[in-house]
Design brief:
The complex is a heterodimer of chains A (about 180) and B (about 475). Chain A is an all-alpha fold. Chain A has helices at about 5-30, 35-50, 60-80, 90-100, 105-120, 120-130, 140-145, 150-175. Classes of the chains: A mainly alpha (about 180), B alpha+beta (about 475).
Chain lengths: ~180, ~475
C-alpha cells in the first residue's frame, strides 16, 4: 500500500469504528434477527470500504453508511425473502427511511440502555447477557435458568419491555433537566 | 396478541407466517407501530452490543469465547482492498417537506405554499391540491382524515383522493384502512367513505391494488375500479365523477374567490320567494328526504349533496301532488359518470300507469342526452324524435366528471318541451298531446319500478310550477356555476 492508501485506510477504520454501533443497530432494525444483522453487516463493511474513495471527505459518514446499509439489506431481503419469514421489502424500506431520520433519538435510547441494564438484578442481567452472546443457544441458556424455552422467551420479552420502559423514563428525565 | 408481543416474536424468530403477515400489515399502515418496532429492534441491537463486550462476573460461567465486533471490520476492510469499486449509489437524507399545498379551496387549514410534513389532518370542508416532493398532484376532498407519511405515501383514513402521478413519482401509494393502491405512473382515485368499502378507480395508466386481509395484488388499468375489502377485493364500476381532478381545481378556486357562492345563495333565496315553487332541494338543512344515498360535498366547500353509488340507491320526494301543473320547470346541478347504464334517473314519479296522465319521468339516457317523458303525451306525426320521446340533442355529460347544469321546461298549453344544458337552450320538442304535469310521490336518482340508478351527485334540484324563460335559466346557471 502506498502512504496515501494507508492513510485512507486508517481514516476509513476510524470512521467505521466510531459509527459501527449505529450502523449495526440500523441494520438490526431492518432484518429479522441479530444473526442476520451480523451477516449483512459484514457485507456492508466491505461495500463501505469499496466505496470509501467516493465518500466526500468532510461529509457525514453515518448517513452515507446508512444509505449503503439500506441498499445491502434490500438486496439481502430479495435473496432470502423467498425462503425465510421476513417482512416485505416495502415495509423494510419504509422503516429504513424513517429510522434513518430518527437516528438521534435512537442513539440516545442506546446510551440510556446502559443505565437501565445497570438497574437489573445481577442474576437477570447475567441471564440476559448470556442470551445476547453472539451465537448463543437459547435452549442452553433457558436450561441453565431452569426455564422451558417458551418460558424463557416470555421472560426475555418481559425484561425487554421493562428495559424499553426504563429507557423512555431515562430520556424523559434528560429532556426535563 | 398485542403489538409488543408480535414484534418480540418476530425478532426472536418465533413468528409464524401468518403472524409475520399480520405484523407486516400493521407496520405498513401504522406509523406508530413502525416507531415501536424501530425502538424495540434498536434496543435489541444495543443489548447485543453490550453483550459482546460483557464478561461474566462469575468465573467459568461464560463458556463462549468473547468476540468483539471490530475484528470483523478489519478483516472485511482488508479483504475489500482487493475488490473493485463498481457502480454509484448515493444516499439522500431528506428533511424536506413531503408535499406542498398548491391550492386550497374553502379550507381554513391549508393555504397555498404551506409545507406538509408527517402530521395527521382532519379536513371537514373544502378541497385541497397538494404537490408531493416528487411532483405528484394529489387532490383531497373533504370530509377527509389523512397523513402524508412521506413524499410517496399518503395514509387516507377517510375522504377522496385523486392523484395525477408523473413518472418521477412512480410508486406513489395511497393506504386505506382496508388496503392500498400503488401507482405505476397514472391517474387514479381512492374513495374511503365513512361507511362502506374503500375503492380504487383508475382513470389512466396502471395501479396495483391490494387488500390487506388476504388480498392478492391486483393490477388495474384504465377505466377499472376495485373495492378494497377484507378477503378478496371485487371489481366495481368506475366512478370518475366521484373525484375532483387536479385540472378541475383552478376553475373551482377562481369561482369561489370571485364570490360565486354568495351569488348562488342569493339566487336560491330569491327562488324561495317564488309563489310557484314546488320544491327546492339544496340539501343544506339537516332534514334530508328519506332514501338510501351517501352525503358528500356539494358544489361549494362544506356544502352537501347526495351521492348515489350502489344499485338501489335513491332519494324519495313527495311534492306537488295536490294538483296538476300546466307549466313546469325542472332543473338541477349534477355530477355524473359516463356509464353505459340504459337510463339514469334525475326525477321519476312513482309507477308509469295508464290512468296517470301527465306523470313525469326525467332521465339521462345511455347516449347521455336528457329525456322528459310525460305519460300518454304523444309526439307530432312525423316528429324527428328517434325513440318516441322528447330527447335533448347534446350529451349532458362531459368527458370527465364535472358539475353540469341540466334543465327542462314544459308547457302543456303550448305543448312545448325545451331542454337546457349549462344555461344554454339546447332543443325544443312540440307534442301532439300534452297533459298537465302530474307530480306526487317520486324518486330522485332511481325509479320505484326498476333500477334506473343515477351514478353520481345531485345538487340544487328545483321543481317550479311555471316555465322559466331562457334568460332566467341562463341566470340560474350563471349564479350557481362553481367554475370560472
Amino acid at each position: 500500500m502506498s502512504p496515501a492508501e494507508i492513510e485512507q485506510h486508517q481514516r476509513f477504520l476510524r470512521s467505521l469504528t466510531a459509527h459501527e454501533p449505529a450502523v449495526r443497530a440500523y441494520v438490526r432494525r431492518l432484518v429479522p434477527s441479530r444473526a442476520d444483522a451480523d451477516d449483512v453487516m459484514q457485507e456492508v463493511a466491505i461495500v463501505l470500504w469499496e466505496k470509501f474513495s467516493e465518500f466526500r471527505q468532510g461529509a457525514e459518514f453515518r448517513p452515507w453508511a446508512f444509505g449503503i446499509a439500506r441498499f445491502k439489506v434490500l438486496s439481502w431481503l430479495r435473496d432470502k425473502g423467498r425462503d425465510r419469514l421476513v417482512l416485505s421489502e416495502e415495509v423494510v424500506d419504509l422503516i429504513a427511511e424513517e429510522t434513518a431520520l430518527d437516528e438521534t433519538r435512537l442513539e440516545r435510547q442506546r446510551r440510556a440502555l446502559e443505565t437501565c441494564t445497570q438497574k437489573l438484578e445481577p442474576d437477570h442481567k447475567h441471564l440476559l447477557m448470556q442470551a445476547y452472546q453472539p451465537q448463543a443457544q437459547i435452549q442452553q441458556v433457558a436450561a441453565t435458568s431452569g426455564r422451558s424455552v417458551t418460558g424463557f422467551y416470555q421472560w426475555l420479552h418481559r425484561i425487554r419491555r421493562l428495559l424499553a420502559d426504563c429507557v423512555q423514563r431515562e430520556l424523559a428525565k434528560e429532556d426535563a433537566s | 396478541m398485542n403489538l409488543d408481543e408480535r414484534i418480540h416474536r418476530y425478532m426472536d424468530g418465533l413468528a409464524t407466517a401468518e403472524e409475520v403477515q399480520q405484523l407486516q400489515n400493521i407496520l405498513l399502515t401504522q406509523p406508530e407501530a413502525r416507531r415501536l418496532f424501530a425502538d424495540l429492534a434498536n434496543l435489541d441491537a444495543a443489548l447485543a452490543e453490550q453483550a459482546t463486550g460483557w464478561e461474566s462476573p462469575v468465573q467459568g460461567k461464560s463458556a463462549k469465547p468473547q468476540r468483539t465486533a471490530i475484528p470483523h471490520f478489519w478483516l472485511a476492510a482488508a479483504a475489500a482492498l482487493t475488490l473493485l469499486i463498481t457502480g454509484t449509489w448515493w444516499w439522500q437524507s431528506n428533511g424536506a417537506a413531503h408535499a406542498t399545498v398548491a391550492r386550497g379551496i374553502g379550507s381554513s387549514t391549508f393555504s397555498q405554499g404551506m409545507q406538509i410534513h408527517n402530521a395527521a389532518y382532519e379536513m371537514e370542508a373544502g378541497t385541497v391540491e397538494f404537490i408531493t416532493a416528487r411532483g405528484a398532484k394529489v387532490v383531497i376532498e373533504a370530509p377527509a382524515s389523512f397523513q402524508f407519511e412521506n413524499g410517496q405515501r399518503l395514509w387516507l383514513k377517510r375522504g377522496r383522493v385523486a392523484a395525477d402521478v408523473p413518472p418521477s413519482a412512480k410508486g406513489f401509494t395511497v393506504i386505506t384502512p382496508t388496503g392500498q393502491a400503488v401507482d405505476l405512473g397514472t391517474q387514479f382515485g381512492v374513495d374511503v367513505p365513512q361507511q362502506g368499502q374503500a375503492e380504487i378507480h383508475v382513470f389512466k395508466g396502471e395501479v396495483i391494488a391490494q387488500s390487506f386481509k388476504g388480498g392478492k395484488r391486483q393490477s388495474l388499468k384504465d377505466g377499472q375500479a376495485y373495492s378494497l375489502q377484507s378477503g378478496a377485493g371485487a371489481a366495481r364500476e368506475i366512478r370518475s365523477a366521484a373525484f375532483i381532478q387536479p385540472d378541475e381545481m383552478p376553475a373551482l378556486q377562481a369561482a369561489l374567490t370571485s364570490g360565486q357562492r354568495s351569488r348562488s345563495d342569493a339566487a336560491m333565496a330569491a327562488l324561495r320567494q317564488d309563489p310557484t315553487l314546488i320544491a327546492l332541494l339544496d340539501f343544506e338543512n339537516s332534514k334530508l328526504p328519506p332514501g338510501t344515498f351517501r352525503m358528500t360535498q356539494g358544489r361549494w366547500p362544506g356544502s352537501r349533496a347526495p351521492e348515489f353509488v350502489n344499485v338501489g340507491d335513491h332519494m324519495k320526494l313527495d311534492a306537488g301532488g295536490d294538483h296538476t301543473w300546466p307549466q313546469l320547470t325542472l332543473a338541477a346541478w349534477v355530477r355524473l359518470d359516463r356509464l353505459e347504464a340504459l337510463y339514469q334517473s334525475l326525477y321519476h314519479t312513482d309507477g308509469w300507469d295508464d290512468d296517470k296522465r301527465g306523470q313525469v319521468h326525467w332521465i339521462i339516457k345511455k347516449d347521455a342526452t336528457m329525456r322528459l317523458a310525460l305519460k300518454r303525451n304523444t309526439l307530432l306525426p312525423g316528429s324527428s324524435e328517434k325513440d318516441g320521446f322528447p330527447d335533448s340533442a347534446t350529451p349532458v355529460l362531459p368527458e370527465k366528471g364535472r358539475w353540469v347544469h341540466v334543465a327542462v321546461t314544459y308547457d302543456a298549453e303550448a305543448k312545448l318541451i325545451r331542454f337546457y344544458l349549462n344555461g344554454r337552450f339546447d332543443k325544443e320538442c312540440l307534442q301532439a298531446t300534452a297533459h298537465p304535469a302530474l307530480l306526487g310521490p317520486a324518486q330522485i336518482g332511481n325509479w320505484d319500478s326498476q333500477d334506473r340508478k343515477l351514478s353520481g351527485r345531485v345538487d340544487e334540484l328545483i321543481l317550479l310550477g311555471r316555465t322559466m324563460t331562457d334568460d332566467e335559466i341562463r341566470a340560474l346557471f350563471d349564479a350557481g356555476n362553481p367554475y370560472l
